[in-house]
Specification:
The chain has 314 residues and is of the alpha/beta class. The protein has a single domain (2-313), classed as Ribonucleoside hydrolase-like (Inosine-uridine Nucleoside N-ribohydrolase, Chain A), CATH 3.90.245.10. It has 13 helices and eleven strands. The chain has helices at residues 12-23, 41-54, 78-81, 103-117, 130-138, 167-171, 173-186, 195-198, 205-209, 215-230, 241-248, 280-284, 302-313, and strands spanning 2-8, 27-34, 62-64, 121-125, 146-152, 189-193, 202-204, 235-237, 253-262, 273-275, 293-300. Strands 3-2-1-4-5-6-11-9-10 form a nine-stranded mixed β-sheet, sandwiched between helices. A two-stranded antiparallel sheet has the order 7-8. Helix 5 links the parallel strand 4 (121-125) and strand 5 (146-152). The chain binds beta-D-ribofuranose and calcium ion. The site of beta-D-ribofuranose has 16 residues, from helix 1 and helix 6. Residues 9, 11, 14, 38, 126-127, 240 line the site of calcium ion.
């Protein structure tokens, strides 16, 4: 089994990712950490516990993390995920409590334990990178417990929060810049599962209709229905769930190594991920110096990943 940790701002599509990670037999879900993003941290925590309950995994430790971005004011995506972040569904909400540790402390402890036993954990951030930036700045030794970071964020093309920027990076650009730089300095491999593939793993409403018979399947169907409503189509993308598929089945994802910079200045391009696709000579002679190299996802086998998701959550 592959040990993984998810960092989430649950979120309809984070919920798709959680159901998959909690139920797939090849993954060992060690912990889930929460960060403010799609909605405020209280709703994120409650949604996360609710989804893990539906998945039949109340054993997974969940910790509350950063409520606000490092520098800029908090934002939200309620127009995408509903007022409560989980589509305002008629669904019983969890009343369980979280792990007493802050998300950064839980991440530190789980990764240090892994390092001590020779285990290597794949970290899957699906949200603004605030918790992960704080972690890598405060406890860089946790790199020894990390296999790689596969994060949902960024775009080589257009954005969604703004014309330039993808929501997770837009929400906390400084955190994204810190994480890419730290991963580069600490020798942690990073994969950017960005908007270039994010919308391409679609479950049709017809497929979703077959999801019945267990709390996980029922919730999964409702999530797809909500996603399809939001995008006014006859199917819903599992969004963040695709990044978890990529960890389970990396051969369904095409990536290319590219230097990536985060635009931190103000103006219309703040939060943009500048993916450098120039030839090696131009990159090497860039007067700004080298940028962190990231595996950038450029294509995904959407049909295969949708089937993987369906088979696991049902
Ligand atoms: C990202 O933003 C959030 O709304 C989604 O959960 C996803 O992580 C897509 O830009
Ligand atoms: Ca998310």
């Amino acid at each position: 089994m592959k040990p993984v940790i998810l960092d989430v701002d649950t979120g309809l599509d984070d919920a798709c990712a959680l159901l998959l990670a909690a139920r797939h037999p090849d993954l060992d879900l060690k912990a889930v950490t929460c960060v403010g993003g799609n909605v405020g941290i209280d709703d994120v925590v409650r949604n996360t516990l609710t989804v893990l309950d539906a998945a039949g995994r109340p054993d997974v430790p969940v910790a509350r993390g950063a409520a606000v971005p490092l520098i800029q004011p908090v934002t939200s995506a309620r127009h995408v995920h509903g007022e409560d972040g989980l589509g305002d569904l008629d669904w019983p909400r969890s009343t369980r409590s979280t792990d007493p540790r802050h998300a950064v402390e839980l991440l530190r402890d789980v990764l240090r334990d892994a390092a001590a036993t020779g285990e290597r954990i794949t970290l899957i951030p699906l949200a603004p990178l605030t918790n992960i930036a704080l972690l890598l700045r405060t406890y860089p030794d946790v790199a020894a417990g990390l296999q790689e970071i596969v994060f949902m964020g960024g775009s080589a093309g257009i954005g969604n929060a703004t014309a330039s920027a993808e929501f997770n990076v837009w929400t906390d650009p400084e955190a994204a810049a810190i994480v890419l730089a730290a991963a580069n300095d600490l020798g942690i491999a990073a994969t950017m599962y960005g908007l270039d593939v994010f919308y391409d793993v679609v479950v049709t409403l017809e497929q979703a209709r077959g999801l019945t018979g267990s709390p996980s399947a029922e919730l999964a169907r409702k999530l797809i229905e909500k996603r399809s409503e939001r995008y006014q189509s006859d199917g819903g993308s599992i969004g963040d769930g695709g990044a978890v598929c990529a960890v389970i089945d990396p051969s369904g994802l095409t990536t290319q190594p590219h230097p990536v910079r985060i635009e931190l200045s103000g103006g219309w391009s703040r939060g943009r991920t500048i993916v450098d696709t120039r030839d090696a000579l131009d990159v090497a002679s860039d007067p700004q110096g080298p940028a962190p190299v990231v595996q950038v996802a450029t294509a995904v086998d959407g049909k295969r990943y949708a089937e993987l998701w369906l088979a696991t959550v049902s």
